[in-house]
C-alpha cells in the first residue's frame, strides 16, 4: 500500500518541503511507493516579501506546473483539523465539501498571520499588507484617494508599527501617494511605534541608516506611542495624540497559524511549535514543522529562525528532506542556517543590507537596493518547472541567503 507524506501549506516552506521530499524519494528509487501530497487553498506562491510594493495583486506565481514536474500531488483545500493520534486531517475543498485525508508523515507549513489585538476600530478601519488580498485592497484605496476632496486627512497616511514591515511600507508611501494625488501635493506619512526607537527588533546596527532614509523621505515618527483607537478619519494614541488620516495601515506583530494549536507540543509566545534540530515537532510523532510555525534553532550559538522568507526557504528544504528520510528509515540531518543577513527595502532612498545577528551594515543606499531588487525578483522565486531543476534546487545543503 502506498504511503503518504502530507505537506500543509504552499508558501515558501511548504513548496520547498514538498520538493525536497521528492528529491529524497527520487535518490533512493522510492517515488512510486510514497505519495507526496500538498494541500493549500490555491496552487500559487504568494510573494509576501513584496507586498509593500505597488500593484501587489501581481505578486504571485503559479505552482501547479512545478508540482506536476516534481511528482507532487496538489490538493486544493483548507485543513481545519489535525488528528495526530490517527494521523489524519479534516479539510474543506474549493466547493465547500469536507473530506478526510490520512498521512504517514506530516509537514506543517501554514505560516503566520498579522496579529490584530482588540483595539477599537482596528478590524473595521485599518488596512494591512499581510496577505495579497489585503495589500490589493490598500492599493485600490490609495488609487481612489484622488476622488476625495482635498484635505490634510486625505493626504495623510498613518503606519502603525515601526518594525520591518512598517519601515518598508512607510518608505514606499510618500512617492506612491504622490503618484496618485500629484507631485505638488503635500503628502504626510506618519509612523506610530510603541517602542522609543524605530525598528526595535532590528537592533542598533542599521538604525542610523533607517532613520536617515525616513528623514530624507519625510516620514514623521511618533515613538513611544501605542495605538488606542482607529476610526474612519484617523487614529488616537494611548498618550492622547490625535492624527487625522483617511488611511491607517496596521503592521504591528505576527502570530503563527492557529493550526499549531492542534499539534501536541510546546509553543512560544508567537504560537510557534518547538522543534528538534531535524525539525520534528517535540511531542508529536510523525509531524515536522517549518517556516513561521516552527521555533527552530539555526546554529550552535542558540539563535533561532525568524518569521522570514529567508529562514522559511531553507527550513522547508530541511524539513522535506528529513520527513522523507524518516519515513524511509534513513538518518535525518540537523537543520542549520549559520549565515544570517537582513536586506531592508527603504523605498526610493535605497535599502540597507546587514550581515550577522548583530546586523553589521555592509551596504546601503543604491548599492543595497540593487541587491534587494535581485532578491525580490529572482532569488525568492520558485525554480523552473522541470523535474531536474526542481530536485536540484531542493537540496538542503544549498543554503539560500535572501
From TrEMBL:
PANTHER family hit by this protein: NADH DEHYDROGENASE (PTHR43706), NADH DEHYDROGENASE-LIKE PROTEIN RV1812C (PTHR43706:SF45)
Lineage: Bacteria, Pseudomonadati, Pseudomonadota, Gammaproteobacteria, Pseudomonadales
Recorded superkingdom: Bacteria
The organism of origin for this protein: Pseudomonas delhiensis
Matches recorded under InterPro entries: FAD/NAD-bd_sf, FAD/NAD-binding_dom, NDH-2
Keywords in alphabetical order: FAD, Flavoprotein, NAD, Oxidoreductase
Residue intervals passing through the bilayer: none
Name listed for the protein in its UniProt record: NADH dehydrogenase
GO MF entries: NADH dehydrogenase activity
Family, as annotated: Belongs to the NADH dehydrogenase family.
KW Protein transport (keyword) present: no
Claim: NAD is one of the keywords in the record: yes
Domain FAD/NAD(P)-binding: 4-316
Amino acid at each position: 500500500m502506498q504511503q503518504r507524506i502530507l505537506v500543509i501549506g504552499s508558501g515558501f516552506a511548504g513548496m520547498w518541503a514538498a520538493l525536497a521530499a521528492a528529491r529524497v524519494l527520487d535518490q533512493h528509487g522510492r517515488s512510486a511507493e510514497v505519495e507526496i501530497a500538498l494541500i493549500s487553498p490555491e496552487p500559487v506562491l504568494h510573494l509576501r516579501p513584496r507586498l509593500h510594493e505597488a500593484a501587489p495583486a501581481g505578486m504571485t506565481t503559479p505552482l501547479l506546473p512545478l508540482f506536476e514536474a516534481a511528482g507532487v500531488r496538489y490538493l486544493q483545500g483548507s485543513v481545519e483539523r489535525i488528528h495526530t493520534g490517527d494521523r489524519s486531517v479534516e479539510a474543506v475543498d474549493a466547493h465547500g465539501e469536507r473530506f478526510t485525508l490520512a498521512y504517514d508523515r506530516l509537514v506543517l507549513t501554514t505560516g503566520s498571520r498579522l496579529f490584530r489585538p482588540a483595539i477599537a476600530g482596528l478590524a473595521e478601519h485599518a488596512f494591512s499588507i499581510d496577505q495579497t488580498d489585503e495589500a490589493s485592497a490598500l492599493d485600490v484605496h490609495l488609487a481612489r484617494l484622488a476622488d476625495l476632496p482635498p484635505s490634510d486627512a486625505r493626504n495623510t497616511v498613518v503606519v502603525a508599527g515601526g518594525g520591518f514591515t512598517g519601515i518598508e511600507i512607510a518608505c514606499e508611501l510618500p512617492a506612491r501617494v504622490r503618484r496618485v494625488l500629484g507631485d505638488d501635493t503635500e503628502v504626510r506619512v506618519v509612523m506610530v511605534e510603541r517602542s522609543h526607537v524605530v525598528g526595535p527588533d532590528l537592533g542598533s546596527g542599521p538604525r542610523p541608516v533607517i532613520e536617515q532614509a525616513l528623514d530624507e523621505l519625510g516620514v514623521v515618527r511618533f515613538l513611544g506611542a501605542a495605538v488606542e483607537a482607529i476610526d474612519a478619519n484617523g487614529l488616537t494614541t494611548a498618550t492622547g495624540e490625535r492624527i487625522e488620516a483617511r488611511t491607517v495601515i496596521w503592521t504591528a506583530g505576527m502570530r503563527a497559524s492557529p493550526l499549531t494549536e492542534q499539534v501536541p507540543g510546546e509553543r512560544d509566545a508567537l504560537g510557534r511549535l518547538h522543534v528538534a534540530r531535524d525539525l520534528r515537532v517535540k511531542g508529536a510523532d510523525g509531524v515536522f514543522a517549518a517556516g513561521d510555525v516552527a521555533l527552530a534553532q539555526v546554529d550552535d550559538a542558540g539563535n533561532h529562525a525568524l518569521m522570514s522568507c529567508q529562514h522559511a526557504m531553507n527550513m522547508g528544504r530541511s524539513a522535506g528532506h528529513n520527513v522523507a528520510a524518516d519515513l524511509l528509515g534513513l538518518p535525518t540531518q540537523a537543520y542549520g542556517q549559520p549565515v544570517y543577513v537582513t536586506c531592508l527595502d527603504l523605498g526610493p532612498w535605497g535599502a540597507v543590507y546587514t550581515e550577522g545577528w548583530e546586523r553589521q551594515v555592509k551596504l546601503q543606499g543604491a548599492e543595497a537596493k540593487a541587491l534587494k531588487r535581485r532578491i525580490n525578483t529572482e532569488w525568492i522565486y520558485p525554480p523552473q518547472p522541470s523535474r531536474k531543476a526542481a530536485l536540484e534546487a531542493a537540496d538542503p545543503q544549498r543554503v539560500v541567503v535572501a
